[in-house]
Amino acid sequence: MFGNDVSGRTDNEQWATWAAEAGLEAEALDEDEAYIVDERPELHATVEMEIRAKVDTNHPDTRKKGLTLAAEERMEAWEWEIERTRTRMDRSPKSDRETRTAQVVERESREQRVTFERRAASVDDRRDPDAPDPRERLSGEELAAVNQEAKRIQTGIPGAGSTAAISRELAEQVLRTGDLLSATVAVADRLTTEPGTVTPISRLGDVPHGEVDFEGEVVVLWEPAHPSIQQVGLVGDETGQVKVTVWDASDQPWMDEGERVRIHGAAKGWYQGRVSVALTSRSRVVFPERESWQEQLS
């Protein structure tokens, strides 16, 4: 930049002139240091050297040298905690910790289930896990017939329970009455009015508890006679119809005429000598056709 000047001025003089024109404070430049470049190499450790240094630093024979007593105690406590954590977490390549954990959970779950069933047996003898299985006393032909009827009941009554539980109850009834047909009727009749079971509308009055579950089609909706009523109408199935009242405070979804609904936990009552139901905040309304339509979209 300054070497091409033909006026015979030195580099310092050229630098001062350029700095003055640029509005900068000129500094004297030593002629001997004007073009000196620091060629000393900058040394960096290689990856291998860094690894070797870490290994040497963490070696048990060298780590504690030069440390104070307090620092040595902290290091020993840290090493002890690492070893304890490694042992607790079981880091062996051939570890079966997951399998052993699953076995422990399964055993505890089985024990809790047996304990619960024994407590439930004080109310219902059929729940006793220590009672002998009545199906063992049936012949092969009788057992096949019982299992077939149990499967038919389980298919025909939603929420009736497992086929194994139904077949066991059927076997008890068969041994008690000696007749498979009467045993099937008795078991199906009990399961129909069991809490949580979808009951035919014509049998809602036979349900011994205050809440019922049923399914049907919204036949008609009327204009509510009171502001506290959200909707009121009739829901029917192939066995009959029932009046349904939806209270405004229940915060239930709106139903449309001709729509199929499944109602859980409806409060049972009587209206003009006939059974009726009301939907409260504890009730739940399911729309099977809406759910099927949403599944198709997804």
UniProtKB/TrEMBL annotation:
<dbReference type="GO" id="GO:0003677">
    <property type="term" value="F:DNA binding"/>
</dbReference>
<protein>
    <submittedName>
        <fullName>DNA-binding protein</fullName>
    </submittedName>
</protein>
<feature type="region of interest" description="Disordered">
    <location>
        <begin position="89"/>
        <end position="140"/>
    </location>
</feature>
<keyword id="KW-0238">DNA-binding</keyword>
<dbReference type="InterPro" id="IPR012340">
    <property type="entry name" value="NA-bd_OB-fold"/>
</dbReference>
